[in-house]
Write the structure tokens for this entry.
Amino acid sequence: MQQHKLRVHRSDARLDREQQLAWKLACLGASADQRPENQRPRDEDAAQMVINRIIDNAAVACASLNRAPVVSAREMALAHPRPSERGAGASVFGVADARVHCEWAAWANGTAVRELDFHDTFLAADYSHPGDNIPPLLAVAQQCGRDGRALLDAILTAYEVQIALVRGICLHAHKIDHIAHLGPSVAAGLGSLLRLPVPLTYQAIQQALHVCCTTRQSRKGEISSWKAYAPAHAGKLAIEAMDRCMRGEGAPSPIYEGEDSVVAWLLDGPEAEYEIDLPEPGEPFRAILDSYTKAHSAEYQSQAFIDLAFRLRQRIGDVDRVRRIELRTSHHTHYVIGTGANDPQKLDPRASRETLDHSIMYIFAVALEDGCWHHERSYPPTRVCSPRTLRLWHCVQTVEDPVWTRRYHGIETGTEQERNGARAFGGEAIIELDDGTRIADQARVADAHPLGARPYERADYIGKFQALCDGLIEPAEQRRFLDLVQRLPELDATQVQRLNVEAEPSRLLIREASAGIF
């Protein structure tokens, strides 16, 4: 890896663009062109993980097809059909024989993928769901006639960029939402997909960052459906940025290093210095292998605790005997989804589903009570308002434990590990019963994590897809999609256009009249 040092420069210093972070990110996308000096070998494990991620995205998108935010996003997209004389357009998840403008397909499909909080994650200095790169890249690939190899390389590029940014630059300390790293990674992936020159991709990355800086209020207090729309919006904005820059327009520059830049005013300020590790020329893209998916539909920091609750339930017996539950965990878990957030909504039975899937108190209580987790049955109002659940829910409190915070950052013996393999995203649960008995256990990572008890493999992704498609997607259509996606590197442009899961029209919720402007 090569280390790029990022800091603010005065305008009169005139930092060469080749020394700017956005330029170096754009250079990663250039590896998809035909020049020998830009070629890098493709890692087979990473290529197979791209296929897993596409299957995973399709699974959770299908499960959310009839949820209100997804229906709204789909209606908005279908109001923007692409005329056949202008080319293929892009497909919308679940819909057969409809082609819309690619930015609107990215909007609808990105919302469907994110709605259930049920796909991949990468956590380091900041947070991310890098699978959010896939819907906009797939949409543009379909509209622009790119083949499977081009799409695969674009996805690898986008993962490489987003994960590098998430490792090196903390956004959340300044209450900036993590889509500020997503917009640039989508733009870099588009540069790879379309084999665009570095100067053009450089400008698109800068515009994407400029318009994707938003606050974390979208994940605070009463969380709304915008949490699902936010990454879809970033993908749409990145496509629009690339379209504009392809027409010869420029962007705010230098967006990372300038006197009035993102770093200078939104992040650590003009005296800050960040270190971002980027692959060397000729080094294969492998960052996607450091991401990890979810077995449960809830915020990632709850995954290990859900598995832990399943185990502890066997030792407790009657959960009505529980008097107090203390979850000792990292700073992030405590302050984002725990009692450290000081969000009363996380303990309120009237809270939105989006709030509940970011409440470790609710999640742990339900997992302990039920011994299972389901993306629908764990969240309905009747379930949330159960007196038994309410009592158990309010027994839970979280505590930040410095040991778990260090483990979260991969610091075990004073030396920070570069790879996430040493990181721990769980904690310890201490349960006190009515007779004073204390039962405790801990989990470093979720069972489905690459270092967990049951790491996800291709069969698990397919099983998740089939389970979430059951009753919505015909078995023959499931088989068609799975056969197609597992041949991704071989697909021609026409086959990439069929890389969609189509539901029977009768199984899609269609509202009789549009309530919006479109």
About this structure: The chain has a mean pLDDT of 95. The CA atoms of residues 10 and 259 lie 5 Å apart. The chain is about 45% helix and 10% strand. The first strand starts at residue 2 and ends at 7.
